[in-house]
Amino acid sequence: MIQQRQNFDWVLKELYDGVPGIEMIVVLSSDGLRIARYAGEPDAADRVSAACAGMQSLATAIAQEMECVEGDMNLIMIEMDGGYFYMMSAGANAYLAVLSDVCCEPGRMSASMRDLVVRIGAHLTSPPRRNGQTV
């Protein structure tokens, strides 16, 4: 289980240094709490984490409507004027989110995120919570 006190900065820094154009990396729990971040402001990372909980829920609801889809959300990518947003499942109840500028190549980003998740995904878990407490 990841706790906020654990330091995953070095792992996130590898992703940051390996893919040009990254502005912020956030690891979050499924209920939208920030577990770790690299680059960007802490308050912005908290807002991104909260928004990601809604994105994950929306993606799961849409996937359930597709008969050919089995399992959970794997990757969300949003292209915006000026940049990209990526969110990937990263372990039980944990997600990896990245904000990047337009210079970032989406295929490279998703492959680099997948490599990171494969390497450390077993450590990126967040136990379910009820009323703010771990269950």
TrEMBL record:
- Where would one find coiled-coil regions in this protein? none
Q: Which InterPro entries does the annotation name?
A: Mycobact_SerProt_Inhib_Rv3364c, Roadblock/LAMTOR2_dom
Record domain Roadblock/LAMTOR2: where: 9-100
The highest taxon in the source lineage is: Bacteria
Recorded hits in SUPFAM superfamilies, A to Z, give:
Roadblock/LC7 domain
**What's the protein called, per UniProt?**
Dynein regulation protein LC7
Give the species: Streptomyces griseoruber
